[in-house]
Amino acid sequence: MVFSEQIEQFISALQASLTSEKFAKISLGNYKGDEEGLKQILVRKVIIKREDKLAFTFRYKTRDLVKNFSISEGIKLVAEHLHAGFNIGTLFTADKDLILEQLNSGKVVLREISASTREIPKATHDKEKSRLIKADSKSYLTELKITDGEGKVFKNAQDKFRQINHYIEILSSLIKELPEGTIKNVVDMGSGKGYLTFALYDYLHSVLKLNAEVVGVEYRQDMVNLCNEVAEKSGFRHLNFVQGTIEDYEAEHLNLLIALHACDTATDDAIFKGIKANAELIVVAPCCHKQIRKEIERNKVKNDVSFLTKYGIFLERQAEMVTDGIRALILEYFGYKTKVFEFISDAHTPKNVLVVGIKGKEKDTKNKEEILQKIKESKEYFGIGYHHLERLLNL
Length: 395
Hints:
Strand content: 25-35%
Distance between the termini: 84 Å
CATH superfamily of the largest domain: Vaccinia Virus protein VP39
CATH topology of the largest domain: Rossmann fold
CATH architecture of the largest domain: 3-Layer(aba) Sandwich
Structural class: alpha/beta
Radius of gyration: 30 Å
CATH class of the largest domain: Alpha Beta
């Protein structure tokens, strides 16, 4: 395409639309150039690492190729492609559409038509997820070393930030299964440094607009002090951290009980507290299933899976499944609808099973008898003398 005044006008209009934030997109078509298979180029604005970019989608016959360029590089590239084989270029803005076309005669014309879109697309990266917990302006994330003072997630905290959001996504879907306004009192047992406790409080108050009381229970006093300081700085008046163990904490009135990665029978202690408090939602991520593994190793019952459990790693996995399977049955016995699913990938933590109990109507007597029979048969099959949760509840 011969350089022309019309192309200069088209590029000037592109620059002006980007400056005034009225730019929507660009389409380059009717390609007659030398690059094999290339048919069309689409251009849109994106934000990557807080910097405006132009994302080019190069459409070939059999594939699409996406590349991102700085604004100045992108503008220059549009001009180059208009000179190198694209006979039609359309600039879409909030005010108008501008069409640049080379006719068969070689003449280049530029014409305006009414805007086909008045809504400017949000400039976000394709890979950027819509997160329930935003990094910007969250003082607790800065205090916990997840973000810097400007709200940018530190490179070494990217996995933790994704983990936090994945956790909130899961909890949000579970909370939606409860009647509106159910969540008033929350206890997070074994809250540690409080990453997930703070995020849950933020979600309940900022997103769901609930005036819920949230308590984090943690054995280490230094962690309790740190979290209470962060809560005060963040203005989280209904968030409190207390020192203690899961076993000793008195949980009388609560709607949501959480215990993530509580070791061995501490998970049973947490479930026991939730059942006794008649919590509407119990969420645990079990860890270190030592109690049942010791039972299986001590009794050495021969069964159909003995050829597997003679290997330590398979025995460990079997103990995990049996422990959590019986926990799920016990929750069902007490009227909970149970779910067992993956929490997060092994890239973030090696313990990734979530056991969930959602309070429903009490099971009838016949169902309860069937559940108790299943628990009894499972214990006999694997050579288990007792399950800690079963003993706590006197089943």
